[in-house]
Structure prediction request, 271 residues.
Amino acid sequence: MFKKITTAVTLCACLLSSAAQAHFQMLYTPDLSKIRGGSLTLKMPFAHPAANGHVMKVEKPEAFFQFKKGKQKNLLDNVVLSQWTSAKNTEIAYEAEVSLRGLGDNIFVLQMAPYFEETENIYIQQITKTIVNVAGLPTDWQKDLGLDAEIVPLTKPYAIYEGGTFTGVVKRRGNVVPFAEIEVEFVNYVPNMQTNSFSLNPVIVPPSNAFITMTLFADANGTFTFGIPKAGQWGFAAIGVGAVTEYLGKTLSQDAVIWVQAHGLQRYQND
Prediction:
């Protein structure tokens, strides 16, 4: 009897630990606000950035494009095979070299291939947005692209102060999704662009597992607001809100993901 209880407790602990770490498709570059254009590398691990957990093996993305000033450019051919290392493992990942030409906003969208999550017996597909601005000129950051699953920002995702807030609207092909569940994670283990790995040391120590992946719900209009307590990058994932709900005969959770960056307050002095 004791052995059965111990086994059950261990299993519950594993499930709770897994639930505390949400899957996030990253589309990462260190700074979302650039002074000038040029070449840019975007890293694409499917991982657990708040907990330095497992990197999941995924197939090549289904779509990758750049939206700028009303024009969409297909960049799927730019995606190359890579790898990513966490505290748990090293696994297949992807990355791409892109160009920032001219001033304004660059909306990058990555639609990952469906990933089979054995513990839930479902497929997961995340459609991720990262918006990189050049020279502070706002152009496209608030655009609704009509994606199958999308978070449309109501706050510039690259111009948030630490202690500020981020507001977004969850949408499905341009229509709001009321009361959507949204998971939030802080990139607590800063990615190393040279070694393709998370840092070994966290930026902060969460008070409990409940702070690794935080959850909130959108209102009846699909709108949500989150107060950002710490400078760095934050991921928001609206779970299962997409238009496509089945893949290979199994349930598909099609999630909308967006990455935002908060900046610390600094004192600037004139020369």
